[in-house]
Amino acid sequence: MTENRVVAITGASNGMGLEAATLFAARGWRVFAGARRVERIPQDNGIVALPLDVTDSASNSAFVEAILAATDGRIDVIINNAGYGEFGPAEEIPMAEVRRQFETNFFGAVELTQLVLPAMRKAAAGRIVNVSSIGGDIYMPLGAYYHATKAALQQWSDVLDVEVSSFGVRSVIVQPGGTESAWGEIAMANAEKNLREGSPYGPLVAKVKAALARQASSSSATSADLAQVFFRAATDPKPKSRYFNALGDRAVVKLARTTPGLLRVALSRILKV
Prior knowledge:
The chain is an alpha/beta fold. It has nine helices and seven strands, in the order βαββαβαβαβαααβαα. The N and C termini lie far apart (53 Å).
């Protein structure tokens, strides 16, 4: 039975987060959906929309406290989905933006997880679903800090899983690949914003933008597809450490881990097109 189960989802105002909120609600869960643009979250059919800025500690605390107050102290699953790509040359991205990238993609998930873990340990059950990317294992130019946050998220999640599994709590990673969304457009808008005047990296930004556009046009995965993966990660009786939408995503990650030199060769070919 799932009608009384509680899930908290961050970054729930669009894309995968919004689709996940809709899916969990349709399957009888009590959904607490958090986002900065809370007005974009539908508040019906079991979804409660709550304001949330994962870069703000007070906002994170208020989000979790509101859920615990409404559920008699119960949170079965948290899906740490909030994130974005602060792309640009590693040399030129302002440190304030580097820090914001880590606050959003990594530290927000860390703090929210620390806040929900006491309730999960008390219940002797819980699932922490951390949304990374195949970009936690592979990389592309201009994404240095984005990739660093996803790699950090994965290592942290693995360590956390070892630490909390004896309490009946598990921490797992979802690694989306190419997905139909505005992610690439936002990342490249950030890359262009982060270029300094007269930057020598201008041609590189143009090449990466073209490559991402080609990849976006061939993406077959949708946000709804990834929502299904989120649900599997949250409910799998025997949780895996990693969840992928497609065999191709899994294969790319495995290849990157075992033969990292091939990734450099592939990137060189892509950027010459």
